[in-house]
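Practice problem 4.
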């Protein structure tokens, strides 16, 4: 995988991690309940669950590419359409969801183990995570993906997810940064969904051009 392709993959991974939703709500709640360590435990456990999805998805797509290139092309097209749909649907509901997510806190204390289990399960039990992984990896998997490439793609997803949610946990433990995050929630959510929609549309256009020229 060349540097430009990897940077593109990294960028979309970051967009996916940053989009407000159930995962962000859980990390915020764990941090608000039990402090920075609990938030970090939830963030790292969340990344571990994301890594499970990523490893299974990239290996399955690599197998599909080897056995049926036509099927893989169909998955690519569906994946790009899914990214476009995520962006457009997010734009239709951005104001309410972003505000509700960033204000989701609770007063009851909890242990580090409980925080970690909440972070792990919110990712593992979210079916949209699997769909996003298929949509993402199908756009970047090379024609002959080796184990090193598959490992790099999986590691990129894990590192991006862990890095973002650890940053969230650090920020939420500082009231001033939490206030800034809350005040800009709607703008951030709208921007991220716009970028996802644009990327999905661009990928569909690229696939259409490939079909016409190939």
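Answer key:
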């Amino acid at each position: 995988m060349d540097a430009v392709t990897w940077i593109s993959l990294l960028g979309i991974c970051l967009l996916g991690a940053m989009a407000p939703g159930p995962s962000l709500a859980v990390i915020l709640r764990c941090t608000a309940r039990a402090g920075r360590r609990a938030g970090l435990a939830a963030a790292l456990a969340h990344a571990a669950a994301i890594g499970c999805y990523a490893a299974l998805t990239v290996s399955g797509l690599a197998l599909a590419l080897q056995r049926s290139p036509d099927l893989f092309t169909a998955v690519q097209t569906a994946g790009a359409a899914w990214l476009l749909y995520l962006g457009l649907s997010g734009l239709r509901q951005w104001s309410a969801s972003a505000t509700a997510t960033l204000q989701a806190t609770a007063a009851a204390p909890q242990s580090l183990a409980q925080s970690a289990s909440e972070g792990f399960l919110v990712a593992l039990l979210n079916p949209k995570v699997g769909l996003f992984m298929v949509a993402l990896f199908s756009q970047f998997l090379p024609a002959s993906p080796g184990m090193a490439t598959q490992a790099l793609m999986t590691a990129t997803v894990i590192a991006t997810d862990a890095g973002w949610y650890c940053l969230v946990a650090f920020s939420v433990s500082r009231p001033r940064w939490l206030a800034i995050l809350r005040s800009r929630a709607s703008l951030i959510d709208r921007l991220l969904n716009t970028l996802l929609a644009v990327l999905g549309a661009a990928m569909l256009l690229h696939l259409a051009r490939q079909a016409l020229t190939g």
